[in-house]
Amino acid sequence: MNEQLRQLLQCVQKTAGEFADTASDAAYGVRGKAWELASVAKLNIRAAENKADTGRALREVGEMIYATHTGTPTDSDVLLEKLQEIDRLREEAEAIQAEIGRLKGQEAENRCPTCGAQTREGDAFCRECGGKLSKGDQ
Question: What gap in Å lies between CA 65 and CA 60, rounded to an integer?
Answer without folding.
Answer: 9
